[in-house]
Design goal:
This protein is an all-alpha fold and 347 residues long. It is 68% helix and 1% strand.
């Protein structure tokens, strides 16, 4: 039922016309990176449609830019599912990959270096392409945001190991880091061939806009993935609302939807203040246009995440029916390659 939940959004739906061709190219890239191997794995990956999120979230790009977006979105979900191990076991392989990725970003390897873990090697390829043509300031900022995303995943893994139920505020706070929207907005600049000037990017106004956009996308994701989380026994913001509000599941879903709509309304208000923001900073018309493009990317992501969530296989009842606390995640390497990335260690 959650995948079919309707959320009224005052944002027009968009779709990249290059979806079908980009999907095929992404599948070829996944094979070259040794992330998806064999007919069964290919069917599972294609059914999930995780990389298709790029077509909803970056509707105006094409060519190599579209390929970069598809490959990044596909990578995100494989990395995410690396943490989904059977109940009672620890995702040590995921922690190791996470630490390797942090090292890659903070202590860059020589160009062309090959990493043992396919997910690390694939990210190195994505990162190399993403940096192309961007300023050193953007590269440093984007690297920082990736590291924050990765360390957020380590936080989430440690929280899983403590088995302590999270309240709504804590889960939302961690979710701001692990959702991956901030690196995805950096990517919007890269594939859109523009950059927000560094000092402006750090302003409170743009930070508030980003937080509002993350709130909306995170809540959409939690509602749409609820059946998967129920099947795996994973935490979810809807569960937090049920506990804290002492309400039913349906009431919690309705409240989450209301919070999405409130966040979108707040973002519209924040965007209306952009002309004043730009004027007081003395921005040129070109700089002001970049700020507006950045805001558009946020709205596109909110709408795109909703439309993609309603149409993918990842959040379908079929996928939820195949999940349980005793199995690995849908796109865990154990389900996409001949052998797991590395042994999963029992507690």
């Amino acid at each position: 039922m959650p995948q079919n939940v309707t959320i009224a959004l005052p944002i027009a739906p968009r779709m990249n016309p290059g979806l079908a061709a980009a999907r095929e190219r992404n599948l070829e890239w996944m094979g070259r990176q040794k992330l998806v191997s064999g007919h069964t794995a290919v069917r599972r990956y294609v059914f999930s449609a995780v990389a298709d999120l790029a077509a909803y979230s970056y509707p105006d790009i094409e060519g190599e830019d579209l390929d970069l977006a598809f490959d990044t979105m596909g990578w995100f979900f494989l990395f995410d599912d690396l943490f989904d191990v059977p109940e009672g076991r620890r995702a040590d392989a995921a922690v190791d990959v996470c630490q390797q990725l942090i090292a890659l970003l903070t202590r860059p390897s020589p160009r062309g270096a090959v990493h043992e873990a396919p997910l690390v090697n694939a990210f190195a390829d994505i990162w190399r392409r993403a940096k192309t043509g961007m300023s050193e300031e953007w590269r440093q900022r984007a690297a920082h945001n990736w590291v924050d995303y990765l360390t957020g995943n380590l936080t989430e893994e440690m929280d899983r190991r403590t088995w302590v139920p999270q309240d709504f505020g804590t889960r939302m706070r961690v979710g701001h880091r692990t959702l991956g929207l901030i690196p995805s907005l950096d990517l919007a600049e890269r594939v859109g061939h523009f950059e927000i000037p560094q000092v402006i990017w750090h302003s409170s106004h743009l930070e508030s806009m980003r937080r509002t956009a993350v709130d909306a996308v995170k809540l959409i994701n939690e509602v749409m993935s609820l059946e998967n989380d129920d099947a795996r026994g994973d935490p979810n913001l809807v569960h937090c609302l049920i506990r804290q509000r002492n309400c039913s599941r349906q009431e919690a879903i309705r409240l989450a939807i209301s919070l999405v709509q409130t966040a979108v309304g707040q973002l519209f208000e924040q965007v209306r203040r952009i002309p004043l923001f730009c004027s007081r900073l003395g921005l040129t018309s070109t700089e002001s246009e970049k700020v507006h493009r950045y805001a558009t990317a946020m709205f596109t992501w909110i709408r795109g995440s909703y439309d993609w969530s309603r149409n993918n296989g990842r959040y379908s009842p079929r996928t939820a029916g195949d999940l349980s606390p005793n199995v690995t995640g849908q796109l865990h390497p154990a389900n996409l390659t001949p052998e797991p990335l590395s042994p999963i260690v029992s507690r």
